[in-house]
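User: My instructor asked us to take a sequence, write out its structure as tokens, and then describe one feature of it. I'm not sure where to start. Here is the sequence I was given:
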Amino acid sequence: MNIQLNRVDDAFRLEASNVRGDKLYSDGSTKIGAGEQGWRPMELLLVSLAGCSAIDIISVLKKQRQTISDFKIDIDGEKVDGIPSPYKSIDIHFTITGSVKDVKMKKAIDLTKGKYCSVYFSLHPDIEVTYTYTLVED
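Assistant: Let's start with the prediction itself. The structure tokens for your sequence are:
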């Protein structure tokens, strides 16, 4: 896996691109002289964890023949004060609409946390990550 990161302006705005040509922009806060014209790196970490977990859970639920008509994630991270300020906890809440059995959802979450999600396994073990969900019948 290779990512290219290039500085876009004379401050902190960066453009990342992958081998497929997909691009995303990151930037810092105005407190450090940045323009806030892109995702902050710590936000991208949350996006990465949510995206990885979503792919795993959708895949597992499909294999379990569960029907998903809508899938949403709300993810919130609480950071430690100071420098550095890593996350001390991350809460992920899934809202899934469709025909999904509770036991199947629990199994999907167990598999993403226990086996599949590479982003989850890349986090420092001191970070408390909680997964919750709401199932909504169609």
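For the description part of your assignment, you could build on this observation: The chain has a mean pLDDT of 96. Try explaining in your own words what that tells you about the chain.
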